[in-house]
């Protein structure tokens, strides 16, 4: 009896399967490396920006509301990186006649030169992203801030930072910890951008109890979803 021989196309098919397995492994490995890269989830990441914008000065000392620059945070999934025109409201340089707008400040600062050039050319500023979730994660800013979760819960005391850094891990387990028990992280919606807010009775108030009280009194503060489809759509 003649021995059975696989047809020649089996060799090609085998190589294709092995190539697919290798490509799949490389893809999974690449996604893992990207998802765990310091610029994505590691606390302490603080890249240097093209312009040394100080949140401590603007949001802290000058008490500027976060929503002045991040003006879509209440209506959109994205908080919006402010356009150069927002910076221009305060830092536009001299006009065509050489005079400054009376409300403009630091119009000759060398540190703000990239801003003035961007205003002139219309090119956007290339800010370095600090908080960067993987593309496989869906996060909606408006859903959180309209339910009493303050900016400080994810970004820390931005109003005290000269250079913004990532202070939370932004990992799945960290997000789930909050979703499973959001009460101690809740506050009245009108206090969301007040990063130094404390409960009415002072700093010694039990945040857990205060959050549970908000949950009892408001539909917007009910339990957060924990199903996979909430973030992975």
From TrEMBL:
Region (Disordered): 194-233
Residue ranges crossing the lipid bilayer per the database entry: 12-34
Needed co-factor(s): heme c
Domain Cytochrome c7-like as annotated: residue spans: 137-233
Binding annotation for heme c 2: 69
Domain Class III cytochrome C stretches: 46-108
SUPFAM superfamilies assigned to the protein according to its UniProt record, in alphabetical order: Multiheme cytochromes (SSF48695)
Protein name (record): Class III cytochrome C family protein
Organism placement in taxonomy: Bacteria, Pseudomonadati, Planctomycetota, Planctomycetia, Pirellulales
């Amino acid at each position: 009896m003649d021995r059975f021989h696989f047809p020649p196309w089996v060799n090609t098919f085998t190589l294709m399967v092995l190539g697919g397995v290798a490509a799949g492994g490389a893809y999974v490995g690449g996604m893992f490396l990207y998802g765990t890269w310091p610029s994505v989830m590691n606390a302490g990441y603080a890249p240097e920006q093209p312009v040394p914008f100080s949140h401590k000065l603007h949001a802290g000392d000058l008490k500027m509301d976060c929503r002045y620059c991040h003006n879509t945070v209440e209506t959109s999934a994205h908080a919006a990186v402010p356009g150069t025109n927002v910076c221009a409201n305060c830092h536009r340089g001299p006009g065509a006649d050489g005079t400054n707008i009376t409300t403009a400040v630091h119009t000759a600062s060398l540190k703000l030169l990239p801003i003035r050039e961007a205003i002139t050319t219309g090119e956007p500023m290339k800010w370095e992203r600090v908080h960067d979730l993987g593309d496989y994660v869906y996060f909606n800013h408006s859903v959180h801030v309209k339910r009493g979760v303050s900016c400080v819960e994810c970004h820390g005391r931005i109003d005290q930072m000269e250079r913004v850094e990532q202070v939370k891990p932004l990992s799945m387990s960290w997000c789930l910890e909050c979703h499973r028990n959001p009460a101690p992280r809740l506050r009245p919606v009108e206090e969301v951008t007040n990063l130094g807010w404390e409960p009415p009775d002072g700093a010694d108030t039990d945040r857990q109890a205060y959050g549970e009280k908000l949950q009892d009194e408001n539909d917007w503060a009910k339990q957060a979803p924990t199903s996979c489809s909430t973030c992975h759509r």
